[in-house]
Structure prediction request, 218 residues.
Amino acid sequence: MKYNREQILQLREEGKSYKEIAGILGCTKSIISYYCSNGKEKRYTKTKEYREKLKKIESSHTCCVCGKLTKNLMCCSKECQRKSFIKTRNCLLCNNSIPTALSTKKYCAKCQDKYRNCEFIFNLSRFKLITIGELRNKYQVYQMHAKIRCWARRLYGNYNKSLSCKICNYNLYCEVCHIKPVSQFKDSDNIYDVNHIDNLVVLCPNHHWEFDNGYISL
Prediction:
């Protein structure tokens, strides 16, 4: 059965329900609801009224970066949102603010040299307390040697010496070596004696292997 808008509205005025109209005309309830609510015209008026209400809403929030009034809860724009992620940290020595967006440094550029000197002195005093026997009991052999080599590189770098091979002057990649092997130290010897500057030398990988295997001597 064909139906039109006038028939649906007439049956609706008579007091028929959506279910009864759908049974009489053979249409769905959504079509009846569409015609009874004036169709697209009412939808358009609802959206228009909603947009007008949004324009009338006053900005009650302030941007956390620039302080401008905004409808958003935190930032007024994407630029301010990017700036809000850049946090600052205070230097531990001079208490000046330093940006930490790209790094996690605890000291500013001016205090970095002071920190290195303090850390160098602290490491020297700390290494005098750690013995080889403690490391041998706590770690495996390869772990112990890896830690000693790491500390040797850090201590050698603080002396500001050239990182070039002592034999061939190769400087693209060099290794800090022990003149007296770590295996020859006693358990009572401390790390300060093992990594003393007089016991460290810089060699390239080839000469390091030759020195460890007894082909060359220093």
